[in-house]
């Protein structure tokens, strides 16, 4: 099953970010397993996420197929014509920030609540959207690493009643073990006691490495401090004093990008299903 990426592995090799020898080493290993034979572009993503460590790449591929095949509620049915996804995109903003850092190799994912009514918040669908944003970032020019920015403004104690421990574990396991994109930092804006309680629930499943990436910032933090400690104004929406369009416009673009990825999502889901049935 060929996934319709809009870049070539050769481009990443030419940039000096990985090598044909490493790609071939992973392909040779795959041929000895029950996993589907991956195209070079997919292998490149895993190598980049593991900083070209082949052993770690193999572990990540194993976890990727295992978790995705066992979690269809999070990784299947990603069609933006689905009413559940459309409703969720009205509740949350999910954006792959178009302006990158570190010579275009660090991407920023930005998340916030649009609708603060906890009754409208769907945790599992929000997780699905968060992982779908990765495919936007990797579609044309795969980054080497990721900075996540989450604005907790509007989150209440009632939102904690939406938490499902099984889903939280799947989400964190994928972040730590299977995601083909290396997390560099996670910045939480407007962090308060709600975030502290949510973190207390999630940390049961977190390794120390992930915990150390999380930086909680008080609601008292000024915009200048956010630019200095988190991400520059060039990478933030207009509402945050940034140079990008509004959150509403960026979220609208995300919906369009998800629609453009329809064939990719279908192809990847078929790839995962082929492993599941093998």
From TrEMBL:
Alphabetized PROSITE patterns for the sequence: CRAL_TRIO (PS50191)
CDD domains: SEC14
Highest taxon of the lineage: Eukaryota
Transmembrane segments: none
InterPro entries reported in the protein's UniProt record: CRAL-TRIO_dom, CRAL-TRIO_dom_sf, CRAL/TRIO_N_dom_sf
GO molecular function: phosphatidylinositol bisphosphate binding
Protein name, per record: Clavesin-1-like Protein
Organism: Tribolium castaneum (Red flour beetle)
